[in-house]
Amino acid sequence: xxxxxxxxxxxxxxxxxxxxxxxxxxxHGAWCxxxxxxxxxxxxxxxxxxxxxxxxxxxxxGACLNRAPPFDATLAACRYTFPLDQLLQDFKYGHHLxxxxxxxxxxxxxxxxxxxxxxxxxxxxxxxxxxxxxxxAAARQIERGFNQAQELAHLVAAALKLPLLTDALIRAKxxxxxxxxxxRERHKNVxxxxxxxxxxxxxxxxxxxxxxxxxxxxxxxxxxLRDGGAAKVFIGVAARASVTQETGVP
Length: 250
Ligand SMILES: [Zn+2]
Ligand SMILES: [Zn+2]
What we know:
Distance between the termini: 46 Å
Helix content: 25-40%
Number of helices: 9
Structural class: alpha/beta
CATH architecture of the largest domain: 3-Layer(aba) Sandwich
Shape: globular
CATH class of the largest domain: Alpha Beta
CATH topology of the largest domain: Rossmann fold
Number of domains: 2
Order of helices and strands: HHHEHHEHHEHEEHE
Bound molecules: zinc ion
Strand order of the largest sheet: 1-6-5-2
Strand content: 5-15%
Oligomer: single chain
Number of strands: 6
Largest sheet: 4 strands, parallel
């Protein structure tokens, strides 16, 4: 056993990792067995927007059938319910940066599953080529000190061995916080909020954010990425909220 691995095995034996959700001894990555089993996974989600669907539904939700969003597909590991809601709030507002890895891991596993053996009609038959993080407004990033989406995107890019384009997408205007608005107004609020500063011709972009609610923010960002030439835009989020939930999503 190489010395570094031995050292980390020794550390693990002396200080066993604690479940990020309940504090018991972790057994499945960052989770104990019970919390890992109880994670609110989306067993079947809309291919386009990841909204949870019943087992008997088709591949698209009613909203996407009615009006297809501009992005090609969405991956969301879990619903935005306990414990994901608390963990994401702690991560984002409590500056608990150690939560980036377990939250990103959920998304990484979801991406790896989708990319491992895509079916004939899967949008992931053409895999993403680049990762982009949802940018924060400059003032908000200064206030918070970090961009939670960037932290997740960095880990996803490393795990999928894809380049992370940190300068491609910017906030073009300082829109009011999405979470402060009724969800019906969120599309209007983020229209034109993003700009693409890089030629993305031919790129298939996986855009990473922490939470998706109405999809208004990712839709506006997708339009900017497409204006930059992106051939496909996939969305990857740690958790998917329903439109009736208040998420604190900026
Ligand atoms: Zn636990
Ligand atoms: Zn949908």
